[in-house]
Specification:
- This protein is α+β, with helices and mostly antiparallel strands.
- Helices cover 33% and strands 22% of the residues.
- The protein contains seven helices and eleven strands.
- Helix 2 crosses helix 3, helix 4 packs across helix 5 and helix 5 crosses helix 6.
- The longest helix is centred in the middle third of the chain and has 27 residues.
Length: 237
């Protein structure tokens, strides 16, 4: 990963240190932990690389994608600040199964596999925080699967836009600053770019979204998810 280390300190836990603080741990570089800045589109790790570290996203947006042998890319996750990526190394994956790249300028912490294993073993507060992250990610994957199986293209797109805008986390949705192509949106919800274009135009005409240098998602888009649909035995479009 090409990057620019920006700060480093001595071992964070000297004798007589205060109670362990996960936020401090993730904010300071030390042995086994490096903080770097990455430019937009820069690769964090590539599919097939050695899985030897976990990365913590301090700032920016990250895309995780898998490439098939035929060269087709599938976007499996879009991640943001305070999220981890690359946790597969902790369950014995020797190689990366996906590629993680910066969608915007990013600031990342790389925690070596041995270091994160140590802190997970020694620090209950960090372990609890990390487990909460894993459970939240698992719940998101399950919700994505249900969404893919039972919801229409329109609802899948509405849900994805609300998630990208962090709807429900801090009140009103936030502007989506990362430029996300319609092809990427289509890959994430399992449809074509033309279908995404159709519904994006519909959402804009109805005032659910707006373009002002970046994509803005309005609370009213939630109504698309809450709208009842007629029961059918046909699969969603």
């Amino acid at each position: 990963m090409a990057s620019r280390p920006i700060k480093r300190s001595s071992n964070p836990k000297p004798t007589g240190a205060l109670k362990f603080d996960p936020a401090t741990f993730l904010a300071t570089a030390a042995v086994g932990r490096d903080i770097s800045k990455l430019s937009k589109k820069e690769i964090i790790f590539a599919q097939g690389d050695d899985a030897d570290a976990v990365f913590y996203i301090k700032k920016g947006k990250v895309k995780v994608a898998v490439m098939s042998e035929q060269g087709k890319e599938a976007v499996v996750a879009l991640l943001g600040p305070n999220e981890f990526v690359g946790e597969g190394c902790l369950i014995g994956q020797p190689k990366r199964l996906a590629t993680a790249s910066a969608m915007t300028d990013c600031e990342m912490m790389r925690v070596a596999k041995s270091e994160i294993q140590r802190v997970l073993h020694d620090e209950p507060t960090f372990s609890a925080m990390f487990v909460a992250h894993i459970l939240a990610r698992n719940a998101r994957v399950e919700a994505d699967l249900v969404d893919q199986l039972f919801n229409s293209t329109e609802k899948r797109l509405a849900r994805l836009l609300l998630l990208l805008a962090n709807f429900g986390k801090d009140g009103r949705p936030e502007p989506i600053l990362a430029k996300i192509s319609q092809e990427t949106l289509a890959e994430m919800i399992g449809t074509t770019r033309s279908r995404v274009s159709h519904f994006m135009n519909k959402f804009r005409q109805l005032g659910f979204i707006a373009y002002n240098g970046h994509l803005e998602v309005h609370n009213s888009l939630l109504g698309v998810l809450l709208a009842d649909e007629p029961r059918t035995v046909s699969p969603p479009n």
